[in-house]
Write a structure and sequence with these properties.
By secondary structure, the protein is α/β, with parallel strands linked by helices. It is 38% helix and 17% strand. It is built from twelve helices and 13 strands. The strands form two sheets. It has a seven-stranded mixed sheet. It has a six-stranded mixed sheet with strand order 8-9-10-11-12-13. Helix 8 packs across helix 9 and helix 9 packs across helix 11. The chain starts with a strand and ends in an 11-residue tail after the last helix.
Length: 335
């Protein structure tokens, strides 16, 4: 538990026993709000941290979900049960999965197999009456004039919201600005299937910059040092660089994951092997490649004169991956 700004405490949820992998943030006020719960497997750690911060069962007023991937929202149902007065805030397109997570969990199981229970856990349902859908620009009131303003920020996921704190100026970006682990190399895009869209992702970064935040808080992981404008520019440049490499590999008939690794693995070559392993689990080349593959297919199918069938080179490795993250899996993939 680390105070990171005026009235904001970062909580390391210790996903998988790792330090500095996934963070939650307690934003203080007369009606305090928790931004991100982390995975279901991290709930005991999170509840212990909240108790040590003096947050009793009747004290937490809200739980703000950036998106419903299981490493961010897998703990929502359990945390909501522990704090029966808390309102759960979420994007319109994610709300149904919190109320009835059966489809999401089944899809995650098809993607992750034993890793689902071994690392992330599942997702307990939340009473629909406690779920409040937030529109773009809608505030959450914490009392004393403090608000968290929801920012519709698709690109990583179609149901992604960021939150801008009026008091500290922090912008809680979820995964919309990418992943940057301490000592884990440069900022890496987070482009999982099925929702990744380059234009939407870059548009969300521009919306963040327009709000002039004091700092950016990533779920993976924490407050990023330096100027927010520089970080957002780096995120935009990284997205374009990775998209260009994926597009080039697809055009040349090469495996996208292998191409991304060949181009960008050197960025983390000098980092600790344990950190690299953690990064690959959270946001690996294969996951990102599958998102780019899906984006390229969707873009091709929408091109003028298209028959609706994507025209691209077929790669066995990509095909196998694509089958595991088909459309019916929707929001299941953590990331």
């Amino acid at each position: 538990m680390v105070p990171v700004a005026d009235g904001v405490t970062e909580i390391d949820t210790l996903l998988g026993g790792w330090e500095h992998a996934t963070a939650g943030f307690l934003v203080s006020g007369p009606a305090p709000v928790l931004v991100e719960t982390g995975s279901q497997s991290s709930v005991p750690v999170l509840l212990d941290a909240l108790a040590r911060l003096g947050i009793g069962a009747g004290d937490l007023a809200g739980i703000a979900v950036t998106h419903v991937h299981l490493d961010h929202a897998g703990g929502v149902g359990d945390v909501a049960r522990a704090f029966p007065g808390a309102v759960v805030y979420v994007h319109e397109l994610g709300a149904r999965h919190l109320a009835d997570p059966s489809r999401l969990v089944a899809s995650a199981g098809r993607v992750y197999g034993t890793l689902l229970d071994d690392l992330y856990g599942r997702l307990a349902p939340t009473d629909a009456e406690r779920i409040r859908v937030l529109a773009d620009g809608e505030p959450i009131a914490l009392g004393g004039g403090r608000t968290l303003t929801a920012i519709d920020s698709p690109g990583h996921a179609k149901h992604h919201l960021a939150y801008h704190d009026s008091t500290s100026g922090l912008l809680f970006a979820g995964d919309a600005a990418g992943v940057k682990l301490p000592d884990g190399g440069p900022l890496r895009p987070a482009t999982p299937p099925p929702d990744f869209d380059l234009d939407l992702a870059c548009g969300s970064l521009a919306r963040f910059a327009a709000r002039r935040p004091a700092a950016i808080a990533l779920a993976h992981y924490g407050i990023v040092p330096g100027e927010p404008d520089e970080l957002l520019a780096q995120a935009d440049a990284a997205l374009h660089a990775w998209a260009d490499e994926a597009t080039r590999a697809d055009r040349e008939g090469r495996d996208i994951a292998e191409a991304l690794a060949e181009r960008f693995a050197a960025d983390t070559a000098s980092t600790d092997p344990a950190v690299r392993s953690k990064l690959e689990t959270l946001n690996g080349f294969h996951s990102n490649a599958a998102g780019f593959r899906r984006w390229l297919e969707t873009r091709a199918s929408r091109a003028p004169g298209s028959s609706g069938v994507a025209s691209h080179h077929e790669h066995p490795a990509d095909d196998e991956r694509r089958e595991r993250v088909a459309a019916e899996q929707e929001e299941a993939r953590p990331g």
